[in-house]
Design a protein that fits this description.
With 474 residues, the chain is α/β, with parallel strands linked by helices. 43% of the residues lie in helices and 11% in strands. The strands form five sheets. It has a four-stranded mixed β-sheet with strand order 2-1-3-13, with helices on both faces. Helix 18 packs across helix 20. The longest helix is centred in the C-terminal third of the chain and has 21 residues.
Length: 474
């Protein structure tokens, strides 16, 4: 995607087409993906002990309106709490708060359209980095600084997913994140001698192949143009010691480690998956797990939360493992990284920033009402988290099923690792170059070496474009 100094990413017709094309890919199959929010977590009776909300008077007198746009949360209980929470804050401070929820696959194109029109919502939230919009949104450094004064050091993954070290700009405010573990069916993995699930990519290949052969149930790692496929591909690359860029924001994709990872993914597909994974949408792996048609998926806990309501027998059989070990390390991208942005056209800027600090101060209720889906970027704000994970307040069987997530920060990294989630990485992510690379080799349309070379050419062009505009280093 592209930008300009005067009108952000929509300075000329060619640029606008590029943005809408790349953004449009995100909503590929959005009609199907619209089921994602409803299918990923159904309503549930809340557990006991919800944290009390706090309130602090804003630093200045507020008035007017605050228009908020955010995704329809994969755990609907969150939105049932969030909307009255935000409006109650508005009533206290003299601001009329309106809230719109849309499917997450539509957020980027909606933001792009509002920036083009120069009007719309004052505060917009997305679940992956919005670095490509840096020229068109406000620098949130003052909010990050205030949060730091109040609560200490921000989780590095959140900082790297909202800050551009080249320009010194916080293009977003990132108060929260979501881990991305592996969800596996214990009964199936027990049948192949791994009751505690796979711990390495080699385990996944061996066990997944045996399960598919003996039970006819496949693994659920997509290689299509959707978010989960993006995440799975990056986890595999990093664990093999490969990456898209290096720590200095220079393209580093074409290495023996990347080729090895692509060859491995081809073997994994051939032994343990079917062609359907090449056309999956963001809801597909969740649906497969809940329906009993997947032995393992790489996802958050929301699919399991849904299964608790829709298919309790499957839910009780679903367990979790952290990032799988590869030849070099064990890393996974965050499943969700919250990016809150204030477009330059916004009128309710002061209210937007004050609300974000109020929302962050209340992150214990955020975590609780998302059924432990949302984690805070400032640990001191959720001191109850470890206790909740060790004894789930929402009927996990066993109650300590989520205890492994107490160590999630240790195996979680950001999009763009080992560098930041810069504008170039944002475009690589949103144009699905990585899942396309894996799919080309897995389907036999290119050798691993050829698939990597094609990806490198595409990535080089993207990095050169953003570097020319002075928005990335290297």
């Amino acid at each position: 995607m592209t930008d300009s100094d005067s009108l952000g990413i929509f300075a000329d017709p060619r640029t606008r087409r590029e943005v809408l094309r790349a953004s449009g890919l995100i909503v590929l199959g959005s009609a199907l993906a619209s089921a994602c929010a409803s299918e990923e977590a159904g309503p549930s009776k809340p557990g006991t002990g919800a944290p009390k909300e706090t309130f602090k008077e804003p630093s200045s007198k507020l008035s007017g309106e605050l228009k908020i746009l955010l995704w329809s949360h994969f755990v609907p209980a969150h939105d049932k709490w969030f909307d009255p929470f935000a409006k109650k804050w508005g009533d206290k401070v003299g601001v009329k708060v309106t809230i719109d929820h849309i499917n997450t696959a539509q957020v980027v194109t909606r933001l792009a359209a509002e920036i083009q029109a120069g009007q719309g919502h004052d505060l917009i939230q997305h679940i992956s980095p919005l670095s490509q919009f840096e020229p068109s949104v406000l620098n949130m450094k003052d909010v990050v600084d205030e949060a730091g004064k109040s609560w200490g050091e921000q989780f590095e993954v959140c900082r790297k997913s909202s800050f551009n070290p080249t320009t010194g700009v916080f293009y977003a405010y990132s108060p929260g994140w979501v881990p991305d573990p592996g969800d596996y069916r214990r009964s199936l993995w027990k049948s192949v001698g791994m009751p505690n699930g796979p711990t390495s990519w080699d385990d996944l290949l061996k066990g997944g192949t045996e399960i598919k052969k003996s039970k006819g149930i496949q693994l659920g790692l997509g290689m299509s143009q959707e978010t989960d496929s993006n995440m799975a591909g990056r986890a595999l690359l990093w664990s093999f010691g490969a990456s898209i860029q290096d720590e200095n924001e220079r393209v580093a994709i074409n290495t023996p480690e990347t080729i090895d990872a692509v060859e491995f993914m081809a073997k994994l597909y051939q032994g343990s998956m079917t062609d359907e994974i090449f056309s999956w949408n963001p809801a597909s792996n969740n649906q497969a797990l809940i329906a009993g048609k997947a032995a393992y998926i790489l996802n958050s806990i929301s699919a399991w939360r849904t299964a608790q309501e829709q298919n309790p027998e499957i839910a009780d059989d679903v367990y979790f493992v952290p990032a799988l070990k590869g030849p070099k390390t064990a890393l996974a991208a965050q499943h969700v990284i919250y990016n809150w942005v204030v477009p330059k056209y916004a009128k309710g800027v002061d209210a937007a920033k004050e609300f974000l600090l109020h929302y962050t101060a209340n992150f214990a209720p955020v975590t609780y009402h998302s059924k432990l889906y949302d984690f805070c970027a400032w640990e001191k704000l959720t001191p109850q988290l470890d206790a909740w994970l060790k004894k789930d307040p929402f009927r996990a069987k066993p109650a300590n099923k989520l205890a492994f997530l107490t160590d999630a920060k240790g195996w979680t990294t950001n999009i763009g690792y080992p560098g930041p989630a810069n504008t170039a990485e944002g475009e690589v992510f949103n144009t699905f170059i990585i899942p396309n690379m894996f799919a080309a080799a897995a389907r036999g349309k290119a050798s691993a070496t050829e698939a990597v070379a094609t990806a490198e050419k595409q990535i080089n062009a993207i990095f050169a474009k953003w570097r020319k505009r002075g928005l990335i280093g290297g």
